[in-house]
Specification:
alpha/beta; Cytidine Deaminase, domain 2; Dihydrofolate Reductase, subunit A; 2 domains; 9-stranded mixed β-sheet; 14 strands; binds NADP nicotinamide-adenine-dinucleotide phosphate
Length: 373
């Protein structure tokens, strides 16, 4: 709000707040994982992160930790404090009541209901620094931790990271017949990623071919994402490993023999699977992708790791519903040109977010031209 910029101590506190908040994303979803650090004379006197609903927001946790030391302190927050009564009272009121003198904000709140926090604080006589400009690296850093929340607010759908594993010559299955295309290091990276999202998405083709569990293994986490299968006609066998409580199957309106469809849906529901019906895809095949993602947003999911086969992967890319593309390439398998296997989808000027390796495999993260949410 003021033209002032955060000082170096406040920037360090912002980095700390962002790092604290980042692992909390899926635990507090669909709320944003926010971090708050309270500084007095350059020292940390309280800090906190958003607690799982219906718990308090980061600012309230930090204020409680600081106690009377919050009087005259600077609050450094990754997201503009909320100014509305939701499940909890407005954070702006808590900051004003505690006597905070200055608030540094990295990212504005795009949510129409919750926005206006910076203005409210300024009107109460608090010095407000930020939200930071778009190109400020600290704003970019916290936006990463907030990407699911920001996408859900702006686009009414979860943020989608599409992961594809390929051989060097572009095949999606291992020519040796082995179950996986990539090695252990790449698969561990996938499990860490699963632990950071609300749902893991595949098409029914992958369920039928691989019978995956789509859970998090070998990673220390309190969070398991919900498996999501796009399965227009409920072909998922009731014996599939993904059939368990919490799994979501997105199906098209029941077609064909209605009693058979009902029977299938009931058998899946008996095992705790949630069946959501959305419109069929535009060609009459599969499910309508925007509608499917909208249904998942209604279930409170703001972030997905999509790990489908080529059919659904191609459809997500064609529909421009991919916010990040992660290519894992087994450079030792196949003999095609590697740059081809690592290339972005044709036609679109995708940007490299980062590239490197995972064990024997090459990894590249690509962002679409319009950027993530
Ligand atoms: N290398 C990798 O990264 C990787 C990852 C996963 C799987 N795979 C391999 O891929 C193969 C399976 O390929 P796949 O293409 O059949 O798997 P998939 O893409 O996961 O599943 C495709 C199915 O999803 C359903 N679907 C629902 N709505 C859709 C929509 N809007 N667009 C597209 N599909 C929709 C369709 O079945 P309905 O019409 O019946 O709904 C479709 O046949 C297996 O060999 C597996 O091992 C490789």
């Amino acid at each position: 709000m003021s033209g002032a910029r955060p000082n170096p101590t406040e920037r360090a506190a912002l980095a700390r707040a962002g790092a604290m908040a980042a692992p909390h994303g899926p635990l507090v979803s669909p709320n944003p994982a926010v971090g708050c650090v309270l500084l007095a004379d350059g020292n940390v006197v309280g800090e906190g992160v958003t607690q799982p609903p219906p718990g308090p927001h980061a600012e309230v946790v930090a204020l409680a930790a600081a106690g009377s030391a919050a009087q005259g302190a600077t609050a450094v927050v990754t997201l503009e404090p909320c100014a509305h009564h939701g499940r909890t009272p407005p954070c702006t009121d808590a900051l004003i009541a505690a006597g905070v003198a200055r608030v540094v904000i990295a990212h504005p709140d795009p949510h129409a209901i919750a926005a206006g926090g910076a203005r409210r604080l300024a009107d109460a006589g608090i010095e407000v620094v930020g939200p930071l400009p778009d190109d400020d690296p600290f704003r970019g850093a916290v936006a990463g931790a907030l990407e699911g929340f920001l996408c859900a607010v702006r686009r009414a759908r979860p943020h989608v990271t599409l992961k594809l594993a390929r051989t060097a010559d572009g095949h999606v299955t291992n020519p040796t017949g082995a179950r996986w295309v990539t090695g252990g290091a790449a698969r561990r990276a996938v499990h860490r990623w699963r632990a950071a999202v609300d749902g893991v998405l595949v098409g029914v083709g992958t369920v039928l071919a691989d019978d995956p569990r789509l859970d998090v293994r070998d990673v220390a986490t309190d969070h398991q994402p919900r498996p999501v299968v796009l399965d227009a006609t409920l072909r998922t066998p009731p014996t599939a490993r993904v059939v368990r409580p919490g799994t979501v199957l997105v199906a098209a309106p029941a077609a064909g023999d209605p009693s058979r469809q009902r029977h299938r849906a009931e058998r899946l529901a008996e095992q705790g699977v949630e069946v959501r019906r959305v419109a069929a895809g535009p060609t009459g095949r599969g499910v309508d992708l925007p509608a499917a993602l909208g249904a998942l947003a209604e279930l409170g999911m703001v972030s997905l790791l999509a790990e489908p086969g080529p059919t659904l992967a191609g459809a997500l890319l064609d529909a421009e519903l991919v916010d990040r593309l992660v290519l894992h390439v087994a450079v030792g398998l196949g003999d095609g040109p590697l740059d081809g296997a690592l290339a972005p989808p044709p036609g679109a000027p995708w940007r490299t977010e980062r590239s490197g390796g995972a064990g024997a495999d090459a990894v590249v993260h690509l962002l679409p031209p319009t950027g993530a949410a």
